Amino acid sequence: MLLLILAYLGGVLTILSPCILPVLPFVFARADRPFLKSGLPMLIGMAATFALVATLAAVGGGWAVHANQYGRAVALVVLALLGLTLLSSHVAEWLTRPFVALGNRLSQHSDGEHESIWGAVGLGIATGLLWAPCAGPILGLLLTGAALKGASVTTTLLLLTYALGAATSLALALAVGGKVFALMKRSLGAGQWVRRALGALVLAGVAAIASGVDTGVLTRVSLASTNRIEQKLIDAVRPMPAAVAAPAPKPGEALPVEGTLPSLAGATGWLNSTPLTPAALHGKVVLVDFWTYSCINCLRSLPFVEAWHDKYKDHGLVIIGVHSPEFAFEKDPANVAAAVQRLGVRYPVALDPDYAIWQGFNNEYWPAEYFIDAQGRIRHHSFGEGGYAEDEDVIRQLLTEAGYKDLPGGYVQPGAKGAEAASSGDYDRSPETYVGYARADHFASGQVAHDDAFGYRAPATLATNQWGLAGRWTVHAQDATLDAADGSITYRFRGRDLHLVLGPGSDGKPVRFRVTLDGQAPGADHGMDTDADGNGTVTAQRLYQLVRQAHGTGERTFTITFLDPGVRAYAFTFG
């Protein structure tokens, strides 16, 4: 119930958000009509369409996104026709001649006696198609949750509740607007001029949406930004993980049964193996490791998983790495295959771009390990880094239960290097920081222009954990793309290591870069992907280690300048 209330309040606040501004003219265009017969059906159609489109986006992924783009195009045409009919009665008569029924719904005869409820609903549907893609971060949160867990009745109900909240605030605005327009018509006799003004506003709104002004310029110039309010609502609405890490088992203590090994049929492909099934794995102890190749926590735990594979593969252990991507580029099978080869992963890897296996385990984390006994039962799980000795004890206990003998002793000591080496253990190190606007924090270069090219300036000084852009960038939900050479990113960080997930542009051309620490070449503090002078090249979409401080985890100002355009920056992580 609390989630529904918060989603509803988030919808009510949408009227203060910049993205709702281009929709308002379409709503006020019905202000001089009876609310129950015109305004209410339009708002219901708008809310229902929003919930349907958003649910389809959760279910169908990319297909629905493309389908909705066609819906937007159709809606723009319909609403442009509406604007023309409002602007000129002669144009209205000419346009509606071939489509009398549609014309009667959209034309603005002032008496309203022949107003069609279904026409108002149709207008609401068209408006809903336009509004759905820019409905704000709460929609993004709900769709992300649906993508990870699968669409459900709960997801649709939350989306509909959010839409109804927005419809409520628009209904109040419509009621106030209706009184204003009625007063103008009675006192000034200006009905025709009001209608024409509304027509001009509708056409201006169509132009704004078609050109992207509604999600670009309006975001920057709006005096009523609700980003902070919406972010607090997101933090409150964000679902808590369904599971928590199990406590480390005590030596000799029986492990509980937590469930059974789910189906692996959701994998879209397999690396290093033919497709595996729970039935084929019966009699083997199985370790399922959820990972993704640009995740620093996954990379630091990977040497232990690889070492367990080498140590116990001939003693009844089967390790399955389930690759569930965080970023879009990690869905590309070729990228995953290249990463598997580069990282030296030799055990079976299941490709899980649709989160089918992830959902089957009800998983919430990268990395996550699930330990399955020879009877196909989940007996233990662990999340995140650390606890490797306890995990190896679980492996040995399950192998012993399965009847395997003469197991090799001791604990693995991988001796990992580079980005795979253990973290510094500094709990004050900077947090993971996303560059895309969907999850960006501590950005210090002013307002972010969503999906629009914009010239940024980095501030002269940064507080700890603040960062900024310089140069011409286009910031997307997941990344920032450099539009012109010599753009840079600056971060005031604390930690031994600094990593940044980067990729070349759509043309795949390498991008040269140069790194400085406190304005100087890094020298002995350079990372594995830079030299002592700070030079490096982005050649693939992956995590790059740019800094490894030779002496401790002090606070430094990091700057990376890209000498070529096209680079895409995703997220910082620290060690």
TrEMBL record:
Residues 234-400 form the Thioredoxin domain. The keyword Membrane applies. Gene3D superfamilies: Galactose-binding domain-like, Glutaredoxin. Keywords: Membrane, Transmembrane, Transmembrane helix. The chain crosses the membrane at residues 6-28, 40-64, 70-96, 117-139, 159-181. The keyword Glycosyltransferase does not apply. This is Cytochrome c biogenesis protein DipZ. It comes from Rhodanobacter geophilus.
